[in-house]
Every structure is written in C-alpha cells, then in structure tokens.
Design brief:
Blueprint (H helix, E strand, L loop, with lengths): L1 H24 L1 H4 L15 H19 L4 H24 L12 H13 L24 H4 L6
C-alpha cells in the first residue's frame, strides 16, 4: 500500500513542481524543453538527476532502518520516475521510439494533453504562465474526447 500511495502522491508532487518550480524560478533550466530543437540532451534533463535523489535516499535509509516504510516510499517514487521516462520521454517526445502507433485511448489522451502544454512553444508571444496540463499520468477528460491530431 505504501508503494501505491507514494506512486500516486508523486503525480500531485510532479504537477506542483512542474507548474510552480519548473515554470517558475527554475524556468532557465526548463525552458529549453519548450524551445523546438534537435539536441539529444537538454538542460531540463538535470531535473531527472535531482528527482532521483529523494528516491535513492528513501531506499537507502529504508534499508538501513531494517526495510521500514521509507524503502517502500522510495520504491513508489522510483516506479513513478520509470513511468515518467517511458511516458514523457518515450511516448510523448519520442526520445526513444516506443508506442509510435498506439491506438490506446488513454495514451492518446496523454499525448493530446501534453501537446496542449506545448501548444505555443516557439511562438513569439509564448507565455509560460498560460500553459496547461502540468501532470503526467492524469489528463483532463476533454482530451479523451478530442479527435486525434498532429502535434
């Protein structure tokens, strides 16, 4: 139960960090993710290292504490991070080619929601504060009803 609760809590934590930290005071690290490019790595990738630290510490201290609740919290956070890489970097941004031709309604809704987040990237009047869909696994219902469209 702790693993599942930690995994679920990470969606809310990721949403808040994305909206208020990455689109806030850490914008200089995140903005290259919103600028069209052909680079293999982005400054934004730094966040993966930062977010890995709490899961590593939870697992380490959980094991040192006799496999207590912190171990299971760390496992939940780690599993969320793995899902993030698969969904965000794989499915959405195709940094590695998976789910290229998916017809799964949930995955398509995730794509549409994230494309809405990046809708104005590269435009001259881009305003990072007007972006929507800051989470990763929860997507507003309206994106399930939208027809499939290109990015």
């Amino acid at each position: 139960m702790i693993v599942i609760a930690s995994f679920a809590a990470m969606e809310g934590i990721a949403w808040g960090l994305h909206k208020y930290v990455m689109h806030g005071f850490m914008w200089n690290m995140h903005k290259d993710h919103h600028i069209p490019h052909n680079k293999k790595f982005q400054r934004n990738d730094f966040f993966a290292l930062v977010f890995g630290i709490p899961s590593w510490l939870l697992i380490m201290f959980g094991i040192m504490g006799g496999c207590d609740y912190r171990l299971y919290m760390g496992i939940g956070v780690t599993l969320y991070g793995i899902c993030y890489v698969i969904i965000h970097d794989g499915l959405i941004h195709q940094r590695f080619k998976i789910f290229r031709n998916t017809k799964n309604p949930y995955l398509l809704a995730l794509l549409k929601g994230h494309w809405a987040h990046h809708k104005h990237d590269g435009s001259k009047n881009y305003n990072r504060y007007k972006d929507i869909c800051y989470g990763m696994l929860l997507v507003p219902f309206r994106f399930f009803k939208m027809p499939k469209q290109k990015k």
